[in-house]
């Protein structure tokens, strides 16, 4: 038979180990946790180890700077009806500053139109434009925060044999280019 010899610690040894663990915990609390979490550094060691910088960084309120450029501060709402002639296309644009916002909704009498919702940067001579949505539909609703200053709007193409009226509602910060 095998015989096991299990060491049994005395109460005195357990008390010594408990006191040592408590002492280590107090040293870590004073030298590391208080400087890093609460910017309390009674020994100066937290600053030397860079731990107080952690607490200082968490105390600062982040500052967000958004470059919106010159903005049209007048919130406006417009409702307009645009007739898209049979077999033709037509554009309707808004002049908007960078990061300006517009909400829009347009619909037809049920006739689906091909459309391209896009924007063109101001003073761009290359012909560049950015499409935000391209599809065929009889209505659309949404919003846009412009990625650049320029003209933003819709190109509709009516492929039917009848003129189609688009009812467009816009609300935001813009001027109408037409």
What does this structure look like?
- The chain is α+β, with helices and mostly antiparallel strands and 178 residues long.
- Helix content is 23%, strand content 38%.
- It contains 3 helices and 9 strands, in the order αααβββββββββ.
- The chain has a 5-stranded antiparallel sheet, with no helix packed on it. Strands 1-8-3-6 form a 4-stranded antiparallel sheet, with no helix packed on it.
- A hairpin with an 8-residue loop joins strand 4 and strand 5 (130-137).
- Helix 1 packs across helix 3 (51-59).
- It starts with 10 loop residues before the first helix and ends with a strand.
- The model has no long low-confidence stretch (mean pLDDT 89).
Radius of gyration: 34 Å
- Strand content range: 35-45%
Q: What summary fits the major beta sheet?
A: 5 strands, antiparallel
The SS-based structural class is alpha+beta
How is the largest sheet built, in terms of strand order? 5-4-7-2-9
How many individual β-strands? 9
- Which outline best applies? elongated
* Number of discrete helical segments: 3
**Nearest-integer average pLDDT:** 89
Low-confidence regions: none
Give the helix level as a range of percent. Answer: 10-25%
Task: Give the SSE string.
Answer: HHHEEEEEEEEE
Intertermini distance: 100 Å
């Amino acid at each position: 038979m095998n015989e096991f010899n299990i060491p049994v610690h005395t109460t005195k040894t357990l008390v010594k180990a408990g006191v040592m663990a408590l002492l280590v915990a107090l040293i870590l609390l004073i030298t590391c946790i208080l400087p890093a979490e609460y910017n309390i550094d009674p020994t100066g060691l937290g600053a030397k180890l860079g731990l107080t910088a952690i607490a200082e960084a968490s105390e600062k309120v982040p500052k967000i700077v958004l470059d919106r450029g010159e903005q049209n501060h007048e919130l406006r709402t417009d409702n307009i009806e645009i007739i898209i002639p049979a077999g033709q296309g037509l554009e309707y644009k808004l002049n908007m500053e960078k990061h300006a916002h517009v909400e829009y909704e347009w619909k037809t009498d049920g006739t689906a139109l091909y459309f391209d919702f896009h924007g063109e940067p101001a003073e761009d001579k290359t012909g560049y434009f950015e499409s935000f949505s391209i599809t065929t539909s009889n209505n659309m609703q949404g919003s846009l925060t412009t990625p650049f200053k320029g003209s933003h709007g819709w190109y509709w193409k009516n492929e039917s044999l009848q003129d189609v009226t688009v009812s467009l509602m816009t609300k935001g910060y813009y001027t109408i280019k037409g």
